[in-house]
Amino acid sequence: MDIALSSNSSTAALELREIQRYADGSGFVTLLVVRSGGFAAALPFYFELPRLMEFVEALQGMDRTLSGSATLKPTWEPGFVTFELDQHGHVRVFGELRETTEHEQWLQFSFNTDQTCLRQFAADLEACQSLAAI
Known about the structure:
- The chain has helices spanning 49-65, 118-127, and strands at residues 3-4, 12-21, 27-36, 39-48, 68-72, 80-85, 90-99, 105-114.
- The protein is α+β, with helices and mostly antiparallel strands.
- Helix 1 runs antiparallel to helix 2 (118-127).
């Protein structure tokens, strides 16, 4: 399953590609693809089911109230993605991706989209809960 965040910019993108559920059903792994200005990254990103559910609920709340924030962050792995909604309907998408190898790498990114992207993105993420375990 692939999920892409709608964006009005050709230089900003956030995608979760090839989302797969753990064999025990407790969480997920995806290839998180980010493009922000001239920077880009594509790294494995892990998150647990409770974290996904919290993120989806926060996104749905942002869509209803036009305020708030939502963060998807794994419990044990580094990295996160956060959505913050301002009073003008702009959604700031930002986060940090880390690759912890011999030569540690990380990317901090930030870009804007608008609140019209929230409902579909949350619905697509909610559908991940029904993925069969691998």
